[in-house]
Automatic annotation (TrEMBL), chain A:
Keywords: Cell membrane, Membrane, Transmembrane, Transmembrane helix, Transport. Belongs to the binding-protein-dependent transport system permease family. CysTW subfamily. Residues 64-254 form the ABC transmembrane type-1 domain. This is ABC transporter permease. Its main location: membrane. It is found in: Cell membrane. The keyword Nucleus does not apply. It is a multi-pass membrane protein. It comes from the Bacteria. Coiled coil: none annotated. The chain crosses the membrane at residues 7-32, 70-90, 102-124, 130-151, 177-201, 231-254.
Automatic annotation (TrEMBL), chain B:
This is ABC transporter permease subunit. SUPFAM superfamilies: MetI-like. Belongs to the binding-protein-dependent transport system permease family. CysTW subfamily. The lineage of its organism: Bacteria, Bacillati, Actinomycetota, Actinomycetes, Kitasatosporales. It comes from the Bacteria. The chain crosses the membrane at residues 25-47, 86-109, 116-136, 172-195, 278-297.
Length: 264, 306
């Protein structure tokens, strides 16, 4: 009993972790299912069919590639714009700084559906056709704030004396930026970019409002919840999880090796 | 000394010359991003405001008639969904805090070399489409599932039935299923800020509290928890705000009796095509959330949120 009391936090924490992970395990297990009906909710029998033919469902891989493209472009857009804003906010004192800060904060403090609906109101009123471009515009908009937050956190913890030292050593502004500032800010920028990619790839609510007839991967999944879920969706879900874990582990590995080599 | 002084003496005159150009640098850095947010975040709000006071139909077109009655009608018709959304989102937020705190604490103070692995396990599910993961709950909470059977055997379903969270032997399509899904989906948004603020706490404070004869429970109540308040505040906001507007969990795991306001806005905008009502509803939701958030931040007293 005393053992239980001493380890209460550990047990409770691991229970929460199980709550977070169990759906992923279910997704993985059911990717090996061979369902009889249209829906893949009950276990029938083991099968590798879906793994052998992940694109075997009409439109599935098309929507997947569209989502990847949108995620890629919105990551690039949001990362560039967001990094610029973050540097301006951390490194310079100027008027309207408070207003800019609020403008950055508001998209994160707003229910997604409000942004989704208001963007649709804009597009409808201006008669802009919904599709690839409206999705991209929306995704850059909501990823922007998250990039700013991630980069800001990193640049804030950066020692400005390093840049002064570079200038003392006769480095020009461009050289200082490329050789000193950028490498130090890189983990923050990478975190922001990774977050934008995940947010954009996974976004449903804003895309649902502003996509018109264009179908992204989350929208395909949403539709399949009504029409019948192919096992291939579980295959892709499992693959995404594995790839994400590998990317994060690789990132950890690189940064820990860098830290080791930095400390002689 | 001489090394640092010499270049400064040389560099002084050109530096001063560049200063006016330099003063404009932050503005050039801000311009594209801020313009984007003004055009695609702020301006849409103006359009939505104008849509909410329009009247008309899809065939005849909409016109601004300053018809504020729409707000009143929308509120009168859909206040059950509003109340339900706030109730579900509030419950999910509390559950996230209760479930997330031990895990954040575990990662911050007790995990040792497992810390990074645990963090990865918290973040990685993010990258599997949340819709796919939410659909997995249909399997977990299905009527003939082991989880539901266990809840029934442990007499937990009797309690939740009595509370009105479940019905009979079912969990799917009940409020419990929706709140379970909401809690699950927003849990990482609670854990990460909690972890960040717990990790910053100097563990010597715990030792000091112990030296002053504080029990672990007192140490937690008087030292750890107050110091983690920034994480608690930003975590609860990051869960409550998106949860209040969510319609995915309510649609996938709930029934018509568990519809949230997000579902109503979505179907008004995309299916019924009653744009003014949809715009009014979405403004009411925004106002309610902003007011609640402002009051909460005032009371919790945390300014540095971003």
């Amino acid at each position: 009993m005393s053992w239980l009391r001493r380890n209460l936090v550990v047990i409770a924490g691991l229970c929460t972790l199980a709550y977070l992970i169990v759906p992923n395990i279910v997704v993985t297990v059911f990717s090996f299912n061979n369902p009889t009906g249209r829906f893949n909710y009950a276990w029938q029998e083991f099968s590798l069919d879906a793994w052998k033919d992940p694109c075997g469902v009409a439109d599935l891989c098309g929507t997947l590639s569209l989502s990847l493209q949108i995620a890629l472009w919105s990551t690039i857009g949001a990362t560039v714009l967001g990094t610029m804003i973050a540097f301006a906010l951390v490194r310079y004192r100027f008027r309207a700084r408070g207003a800019v800060n609020s403008l950055i904060f508001l998209p994160m403090a707003m229910p997604e559906i409000v942004m989704a609906a208001s963007l649709l109101a804009l597009f409808l009123n201006m008669g802009i056709e919904l599709g690839f471009w409206t999705i991209l515009i929306a995704h850059i908009m909501f990823c922007l704030s998250f990039v700013v937050a991630a980069v800001k956190a990193r640049v804030l913890s950066m020692d400005p004396r390093l840049e002064e030292a570079a200038r003392d050593l006769y480095a020009g502004p461009v050289q200082t930026f490329v050789r000193v500032t950028l490498p130090i800010a890189a983990p923050g920028i990478a975190a922001g970019a990774l977050l934008s990619f995940a947010l954009s790839f996974d976004d449903f609510i804003i895309t649902n409002f502003n996509s018109g007839n264009t179908v992204t991967f989350p929208m395909f999944v949403w539709g399949s919840a009504q029409r019948g879920t192919p096992v291939q969706i579980n295959v892709i879900g499992t693959a995404m999880f594995v790839i994400a874990v590998l990317v994060v582990v690789a990132g950890q590995f690189i940064s820990s090796r860098r830290q080791k080599s930095a400390k002689p | 000394m001489t090394v640092t002084e010499a270049p400064q003496a040389v560099a002084d005159p050109p530096l001063r010359k560049a200063s006016t150009r330099k003063r404009l640098v932050p503005y050039w850095l801000l311009l594209p991003g801020i313009l984007w947010l003004l055009v695609f975040f702020a301006l849409p709000m103006v359009y939505q405001a104008s849509t909410s006071v329009q009247t008309g139909s899809l065939e005849q077109g909409f016109e601004v008639t300053w018809h504020f009655q729409t707000y009143w009608d929308a509120l009168k018709e859909y206040y059950p969904q509003f109340v339900r959304s706030l109730l579900y989102a509030g419950t999910a937020t509390v559950l996230c805090l209760v479930l997330g705190y031990p895990l954040a604490y575990l990662i911050a103070f007790k995990a040792g070399r497992w810390r990074n692995l645990l963090l990865i396990l918290v973040i990685a599910p993010f990258f599997t489409s949340f819709l796919i993961r939410t659909l997995a709950w249909k399997t977990i909470l299905a009527d003939d599932s082991a989880v539901v059977a266990a809840l029934d055997a442990l007499r937990i379903l009797d309690v939740t039935n009595w509370l009105g969270w479940t019905e009979g032997n079912r969990v799917m399509a009940t409020p419990l299923a929706v709140v379970t899904g909401l809690t699950y989906n927003f849990l990482p948004f609670m854990i990460l800020p909690l972890y960040t603020s717990l990790e910053r706490i100097d563990t010597r404070l715990h030792e000091a509290a112990g030296d002053l004869y504080a029990t672990p429970a007192t140490t937690f109540r008087k030292v750890t928890f107050p110091l983690s308040m920034p994480g608690v505040v930003s975590g609860t906001l990051l869960t409550f705000i998106p949860a209040s507007g969510d319609y995915v969990n309510a649609e996938l795991l709930g029934s018509t009796d568990t519809r949230m306001i997000g579902s109503v806005i979505q179907s008004q905008y995309l299916r019924i095509l009653d744009y003014p009502t949809a715009a009014a509803l979405s403004f009411i939701l925004m106002a309610v959330v902003l007011i609640m958030v402002t009051v909460y931040i005032r009371r919790a007293g945390t300014e540095d949120l971003v």
